[in-house]
Write a structure and sequence with these properties.
Layout lengths: L15 E5 L17 H4 L2 H6 L4 E5 L14 H11 L4 E3 L5 H8 L6 E4 L14 H4 L3 H6 L5 E4 L10 H9 L2 E3 L1 H15 L5 E5 L4 H13 L5 E4 L1 H10 L6 H7 L3 H14 L3 E2 L3 E6 L2 E6 L9 E4 L1 H12 L3 E5 L12 H12 L3 E5 L1 H9 L8 E3 L3 H7 L5 H13 L4
Parallel strand pairs: 1-2, 1-5, 2-4, 3-4, 5-6, 7-8, 7-13, 8-9, 13-14, 14-15
Antiparallel strand pairs: 10-11, 10-12
Helix pairs in contact: 7-17, 9-12, 9-16, 10-12, 13-14
The chain binds 3-phosphoglyceric acid.
């Protein structure tokens, strides 16, 4: 038996189970429509394994203040279509409406609670014993028999729904969580060298520390940066950015400082763009990084950088990639992200991609099956593979010690 329990290790029959999932999905800001059901499809196996239980699903969407911080009503509808079972939605988290709906559940029913992050406690990063005393856990735990965590993509967050419940309820990992952790073991235990990380996209507050940890702990032999992450490193290396990019980094001075330290210490192991693509006369133009400042914002890797990144990728033993290399949604600026993704797909390395953008692009290009693993996680994937700990996994391991059924 592993360090955490699996659904089969607990007798969940018709029990009331809190199932934490990650169905955080891209949303069309104008219509509120969900644009991708990958994460919803990914929890199908777990819902099948719990088909006789009374399932209470907890999930989040977006972050407070962001455009995609919305209700989960649309998720319930999409989930119903995707899994072909009735999914009841309640516009409440732990108040009377939610508690009554949970109390009325029958074996085989599925109830989705409102966006957990509408409750301020869910964005509290605190020790497990504090999270176990939150209103969410104190109000719902008495109505529940067990807890299952299938939210691999949120496993790097120590929030109440991820870490609080396993302190007080018998807890197990869901099928997706198991699959993700199993597939990634090959890298965490003995990665084939050289190990190359490609880190792009946004969420730089999470990603620059990941670059540091991957280099310091020796998980990455080389880190290739793109997207906004590359801008932080270019700024740290002393290059002036365009006005738009400078403005975006103005509130991130501490991150630029951290990147400066990394460039000073690990400069030979960090590859950053030598040229970029910018918008000129409505189209794509290539410029060396010394001229970036003349344009509002850089939008993609330039051709010379694409070639350099391709060559590093072709020599890798293990590749971990998360986040696009530029503004790939805009016509003419997907070149870098596509070229790099195709180079990874064609390499002989053990290759893992994560995060919604790369997974969706791989699907669009019809190359998803060329990867060793396509993860539903972005930040969680990077944290695990750069040697960081996942609070949700640690919580499941502690729960296994406490609640392991007697043989
Ligand atoms: C993700 O999309 O990476 C997860 O849902 C976690 O989201 P967060 O970075 O807002 O915690």
């Amino acid at each position: 038996m592993g360090r955490y329990l699996r659904i089969e290790d607990l007798d969940l029959g018709d029990k009331a189970v809190f199932l934490r999932v990650d169905i955080n999905s891209p949303i069309d800001p104008k219509t509120g429509r969900l644009l991708d059901d990958t994460r919803i499809k990914a929890i199908k196996g777990t819902l099948e394994a719990l088909s006789g239980s009374r399932v209470v699903i907890g999930a989040h969407q977006g972050r407070p203040g962001d455009e995609d911080f919305t209700s989960l009503r649309a998720h319930a509808e999409l989930m119903e279509d995707t899994i072909g079972r009735r999914v009841e939605f309640v516009e409440d988290i732990f108040g009377p409406l939610a508690r009554r709906a949970i109390g009325e559940l029958k074996a085989g029913d599925i109830l989705l609670l409102e966006n957990l992050r509408f409750a301020s406690e869910e964005v509290l990063d605190a020790p497990p014993e504090v999270l176990a005393k939150t209103h969410l856990v104190r109000n719902l735990a008495p109505l529940l028999d067990a807890y299952v965590n299938d939210a691999f993509a949120t496993a790097h967050r120590a929030s109440a729904s991820m870490v609080g419940f396993p302190e007080v309820l018998p807890s197990a990992a869901g099928k997706l969580m198991e699959r993700e952790l199993g597939a990634l073991e090959a890298i965490t235990e003995s990665p084939r060298r050289p190990c190359v990380f490609l880190i792009g996209g946004a969420k730089v507050e999470d990603k620059v520390p990941v670059v540091r940890s991957a280099l310091e702990r020796g998980y990455a032999d080389k880190v290739l940066v793109g997207g906004i992450v590359a801008k932080v490193f270019l700024r740290a290396a002393g290059f002036a950015l365009g006005n738009g990019d400078e403005a975006a980094l103005s509130k991130r001075a501490a991150l630029v400082e951290m990147a400066k330290g990394l460039v000073g210490k690990w400069g030979d192991r960090i590859a950053m763009p030598r040229d970029v693509a910018v918008k000129r006369d409505g189209g794509r133009a290539e410029v060396p990084i010394e001229r970036m400042r003349e344009f509002d914002s850089s939008m993609d890797l330039g051709m010379a950088t694409i070639e350099e990144y391709r060559s590093i990728i072709s020599g890798a033993g293990t590749i971990v990639a998360n986040g696009p290399m530029g503004v790939f949604e805009e016509e003419g600026f997907a070149l870098g992200t596509k070229a790099v993704l195709e180079a990874i797909a064609n390499s002989k390395a053990f290759k893992v991609i994560g995060g919604g953008h790369l997974a969706a692009l791989a699907q669009e290009l019809g190359i998803s099956d060329k990867f060793s693993h396509v993860s539903t996680g972005g930040g969680a994937l990077l944290k695990l593979l750069s040697g960081g700990s996942l609070p949700a996994l640690e919580a499941l391991e502690r729960a296994a010690e406490r609640f392991r059924p007697k043989a």
